[in-house]
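Notes from the 1:1 (GR / supervisor)

We went over the backlog. Supervisor wanted to see one worked example end to end before approving the batch request, so GR pasted a single chain during the call. The sequence is below; no edits were made to it. Supervisor asked that the structure be written out right there so they could see what the output format looks like.
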Amino acid sequence: MARKRRYKLRRRAERQAETRQRIVEATVALHTTVGPKHTTVAAIAERAGVERPTFYRHFPTPSALFGACSAYGWATNPPPDPEPWLAINDPEARLREALSQLYAYYERNEHGMWVILRDLEDMRELRPFASHRIAHRKRVCKVLVNAWPNDGGQQKLLSAAIGHAVDFFTWRTLRRQGLSNDEAADLMVNLVRSC
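Structure output shown during the call:
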């Protein structure tokens, strides 16, 4: 009898985890198509195949939902890892490799990144959940800046140029101007070199 009860409890826990996962996946799909600002609980529940009370039982607060979605997005679609770039000693080659990987990532995720970043401006409650992305961007910039010789006063300009080069919106603007990823990377390497 006890074994049967444990089985039922385990199966119930598995179903709850599956339901929670469906809600997270539905939310991420909506966040990356219409944006967080335009994602409603009703739309999430419908897409996940659950009722609103079930949704709230799993995610009683927006923070709980955003935290789960942020962790899921980071785990399933991480940006390029900057650590292997440290093995590239030439600063221009390191920057070019970084931009090549970053721009390919941006291209694969353009619409989703655009609607999320757009909504981030108006939804301050989302900003704490961007901490993974902010830390990643800082690490990327540090790995790239540290490859260049420290010329004293030029460091500020160099840091700004690299920060600009790795920015999603810079890439998006250059692509909208008709440049390929390689052409955009060449332009940004030339900009950084001029600092």
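Supervisor's comment: The longest helix spans residues 2-31.
Batch request approved.
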